[in-house]
Amino acid sequence: xxxxxxxxxxxxxxxxxxxxxxxxxxxxxxxxxxxxxxxxxxxxxxxxxxxxxxxxxxxxxxxxxxxxxxxxxxxxxxxxxxxxxxxxxxxxxxxxxxxxxxxxxxxxxxxxxxxxxxxxxxxxxxxxxxxxxxxxxxxxxxxxxxxxxxxxxxxxxxxxxxxxxxxxxxxxxxxxxxxxxxxxxxxxxxxxxxxxxxxxxxxxxxxxxxxxxxxxxxxxxxxxxxxxxxxxxxxxxxxxxxxxxxxxxxxxxxxxxxxxxxxxxxxxxxxxxxxxxxxxxxxxxxxxxxxxxxxxxxxxxxxxxxxxxxxxxxxxxxxxxxxxxxxxxxxxxxxxxxxxxxxxxxxxxxxxxxxxx
Length: 357
Ligand SMILES: Cc1ncc(COP(=O)(O)O)c(C=O)c1O
Fold this sequence. Notes:
This protein is of the alpha/beta class. The protein has three domains: about 5-10 and about 250-355, Aspartate Aminotransferase, domain 1 (Alpha-Beta Complex); about 35-180, Aspartate Aminotransferase, domain 2 (3-Layer(aba) Sandwich); about 185-230. The chain is built from ten helices and 15 strands. Strands 1-9-8-7-5-2-3 form a seven-stranded mixed sheet, covered by helices on one side. A four-stranded antiparallel sheet has the order 12-13-15-14. β7, α3 and β8 form a beta-alpha-beta unit. The two termini are about 40 Å apart. The mean pLDDT is about 90. The structure holds pyridoxal-5'-phosphate. The site of pyridoxal-5'-phosphate has 13 residues, from α1 and α2.
């Protein structure tokens, strides 16, 4: 039985995965049957797809969802000028995006699988080309059985790797466009630095080393700045292909599902918080939707005070105020039942405090 509370040992050193290569995690594998291409980032994977499409099509417009990761949107905007946005409610999982209502055959539409719960899109023979982003739903059923023309995933959201991306063409062979890749020693240095930081975090958690928190967090910040400024597609070194492929078939989703079920059982029902979930689907994390910013901020503070660091999906998103405010709490393989009870108790304390008698 695991009695170690991972959250309590986290000590404010960021949500990046620590290295797990040396740890014994009993995780099942799933066959990865698609014909895939690997990258260092999800951004590079989507650029590769777009460049591959451009070889045979004149893309008129690229459509992106209005509610999406602002870093990726900004990056794509720098690389492509013909960006347009379509409105979407990320919490209406059952309504498939009707791509023909705004895009035409010569366009490309990016669909996001929100939290691993979305039903995707409806299309006809005249539909635009569809690219689906499964970064929040790697291995979910919609990811593995996608009907899109192309799919991609930012793998570092799910796998304990410094960086990683993958793309594939469902039920088909991905065109190879080797000429789009370059070697970049600077990029490899960034990857190696980040990998060292993950290893340091592993040693720190084992208690065998000290970590200088500001230096550690700076590596992560610098990496994000570097990724934002880098617009090339970098060939993945053979040793990094091996690293990515070690983790690719591991079924981290099953562990997440077990953790989420515990949370769903333990968190008190309340009108203050809507838990974003869907029967028979496994969501990216524990997703909490709050209607008011003040409540969102108050819960976020309470979580941080208790060393639970939620992410905000996504800040600066203009469509957010009408939709509400989302907090995501990671519940991946690093966390166990004891952490889930701790998270549920922290949330329940907040609910009690904010519920007038
Ligand atoms: C939904 C989604 N897709 C893609 C990406 C981009 O991934 P990467 O950072 O690997 O380029 C992100 C965030 O970074 C994301 O949140």
